[in-house]
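Entry type: protein chain
Record version: 2
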Amino acid sequence: MGKIINALNDQRLQQFAKQVGLTLVDHGLMLVSAESCTGGWLGQIITSVAGSSAWYEQGFITYTDMAKQETLGISSGTLEQYGAVSEQTALEMARGAISRSHAQMGVAVTGIAGPDGGSVKKPVGMVCFSWALKDGHMRNETRYFTGNREMIRRQTVVVALQGVIALLHSGQPLPAAG
């Protein structure tokens, strides 16, 4: 959890986003985001970096199931079988964002930021991530965060950014976080 706590203020988030941008530029890639529980916060942090248009194409905010289906092409079968908060949905979000953009890499987040909406199987703080490259290489992960709504969302942004770098450095595991 230490890495996350150290990266939580907005200035540090922007510095981290700049690092992500440099990594994407080094790989000659553009990024697209698909967000649910963060409501655009990932895109906001990314676009707060001057020059981010060199490596960030666009973001999709798909908060409802219908928006996920209509905007990103998420299968109703996936939503019925696994739910909106699932690695399967996150992967379809990332792939849908890539296919509806000119980007070569997608990052997707979907989760339960609270304070309500959780269940025994899917508690508040559960967030599913997916990082995908247009060539098919991808990574999914589920994290369980603690804290209030803002803290859960901030931690989600940090892990989403960490995952971009981790996937691009192929084979390096994602950093441990709470």
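Comment: Helices lie at 2-6, 10-27, 41-47, 65-72, 76-82, 87-99, 149-168.
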